[in-house]
Amino acid sequence: MAWYHTIPTEAVTANALTLFESTIKWLVNNKVGATICFSPAPAGTGDQVLYDHLMLKGYNVIDDVDGTTPPPEADAYVHTSSGDLGNPSRFTTIAKPVLTYRGPDHDDLLVSSIGSTVTVQVGPATIRASGHPAAGGLTGTFDLLTAGTSTTLDLAGASLPEQATAIAEFMQIIPATVANLEDVDALVAGTKPSAQSTGTAASADFALSSAGDWFDDHPFPGEPTGAFGFVGKGRLNVTQAGAIQLCDGRG
I need a labelling partner for 197 at 20 to 30 A (CA). Which of 61, 228, 241, 246 fits? Predict the structure, then answer.
C-alpha cells in the first residue's frame, strides 16, 4: 500500500485506519486476536498510528527484532518503509500474508516491480473495488490524509501481477504554476485556479524584492512568492503632448 513511516499522526483520517484494518482483517481471514508482526518495529509516527490502531482493535501486535529466517511466528506481517531487518525475501518462504509499504523491497516480496519513494500533496482517495472485503464497506471518495497534507510515500511499482486488485487509489494534487503568458491569460480569465490579491497604488511602479530603476517601488499586493501574474488597471495622466513609452523593467 502507499504509505510512509513519517506520516504525521494528526494527518491520518478515520477512513484511512478503517481501510488499513479491513485489509488486515481480510489477510488473516477475520481471525479474532490475530498476531501481526511489524518488520522493522515502528520507527516513526506513520508506523505507530497503524500499530496502535491494531492494538486498540484487539490484535496481538509484535515486533520483528533480529531479522532471523524465518521471521517470528505471526498470522500476518507488515513490512514498513523505515528499513530492512534481515533479507526481505525471507517473507516469501512462509505461507503467511504480508502487507508492505517498503517500495524498494516490493520486487523481493513478489508483490510488484520496485516501488518509488516520492513526496506528494495527497488528494482524495476513491474506492475502486467496493465489493472486496479489504475495502471494509467503504465506498466513493474520501480523504485518507487531511486535505492539503504533503508527505513522503512509498508507492507500488509499475508492474503488478496479472490478477492484482486495486482496492483504492488516491489523487496527487499538483499546485498550479505560471510558466508563460498563456498561463497569465488563463488566470485573468478565471479558467486556471489561482489565489488572488488586490491593492491600489498611486503610481505604476512595483518592485518584488529589491529596488528597481524608478523611485516608488510599491510592493505587489499579497506579497506573492514564486511565479505569478500581475494585472494593473488605471489611467495615466499625460501632461505633455508627444510619444509615450511604457517600460517593463526586468533587471
Answer: 246
